[in-house]
Amino acid sequence: MMRALFVTTLVAAASSFAAPPSEKRVSALIIPMDKGAEALTLKIESFANDALNEYQGIAVRTSDDLFGVAADEEAAASLKRAETGFKESKASFDERNYEDAERKLRATIKEYGKAVGAMKGCGNLCDTVAMYAAVLQARGDVEEAKIAILDLLALSPTFELDRKRYPQNFLALKAQVATGRNAQLRGNVTVKTKPAGARVYLNGELQGYSPLTLQTLPIGKHLVRVERPGFKQLGVMVEVTPEDQDLTQELVATSGYKAFDALMDRLAGEALKDKGGQTMTSIATSLKLDRAVIGVLRDSESGESSELTMAYFDLKSGKRIAIKRASFQGDEFGQLKGEVARMVNHLLNSGDGNTEKVSRSSDPLDNKHGMEEWQGDDRGGRNTTREKKTKGGDPLDNASGTEDW
Questions:
Q1: Of 4, 81, 224, 227, which is the most exposed, with the fewest CB atoms less than 10 Å away?
Q2: pLDDT for 89-147, tens place per residue?
């Protein structure tokens, strides 16, 4: 009897320490049905995945996780050569061998220009341009030095020169250029990609999604990089002038993304039905997903709004857990993120009840609307409890007047 009790206790203890059930691998997959919808695809996917990430029991896999961004190998090779050139140029500059330094710096800047697709920011390019401007001034070419300084200010307006390395007259020239008329000139660059909807980075900082107009940029050189999951990253060094200009980049898809793209139309057809089919099963296997929020996005007939049908599917069985439709007009005021989040919340809250929303933020006011305690304790600075009405008493006693609002 004691042995049986001991074994039972051990089994109960072991079960209490059993590993929790594994999280479901879930992703948002948005399928554009026309060119107008294409520009919003990655943006809506990003917003939907952010909303999914608020739920426990879910391991969110983004488009970057599923398809990755293919490296620009040629740009990476140029970056490697540029970094070597920077070291050699710096050595010549520090030795005040300005003739040799100018030659090396010019070649190094050219290599950085071909390496933008592999660059996350200005990095050593800014030091290279600064040294190049200082060398030009030292060799008597002051006007060219001013142009190089404008490039430096465009790449990094807050770049600080090392006062131990650069002479005082060059520091004074930089200050003169920074407050001069040319430094106040601005230009616009409109970035377009094929396909649309790629992330656009300016000097290493995310600006938005293509097509996108980068407005009021200081004249001079800027680094523009575009990337879209499933495609090869691309980048160029743009020379901004007061004249508006267009920059169009044609993205190259990876073989893995091409295979997924070939299934999009069939996946969209299944997503609009009550139950998925073979395409969903195939995607579940190839992308290693358990579930997905699949959205079908198209422009309205008037072209003034977009229509999104979003459904939550168990991919392996094809079971549709929930569906939601909505239309919206642009994202001028940043409202799109909230609209997409509400759709995702509806899908998961209308689902099978296996998920629970949790706050991922340390801010105690997150997920609060500010009225939780209006009818609670501590009203008027003291704890109160509502008393039952007594017969014959004033019917307005203990009533706040807002019960039926």
A1: 4
A2: 999 999 999 999 999 999 999 999 999 999 999 999 999 999 999 999 999 999 999 99
**Which ranges of the chain have pLDDT less than 70?**
1-21, 352-356, 358-405
- The C-alpha atoms of residue 338 and residue 326 are separated, in whole angstroms, by 12
Residue 384: strand, helix, or coil: coil
Shared-domain flag, residues 167 and 217: no
Sign, CA torsion 229/233/237/242:
negative
Q: How many domains would you assign to the chain?
A: 3
In the sheet where 319-328 sits, what is the strand order? 58-60, 24-32, 291-299, 306-314, 319-328
Domain end point (choices 169, 184, 199): 184
Final residue before a domain boundary, out of 152, 184, 216: 184
Q: Residue 180: which of 132, 215, 142 has the closest Cα?
A: 142
- CATH label of the domain that carries residue 276: 3.40.50.10070
> Residue 353 has which token pair?
């009840």
pLDDT at 385: 38
- Going 343 to 345 to 350 to 354, the CA torsion angle's sign is positive
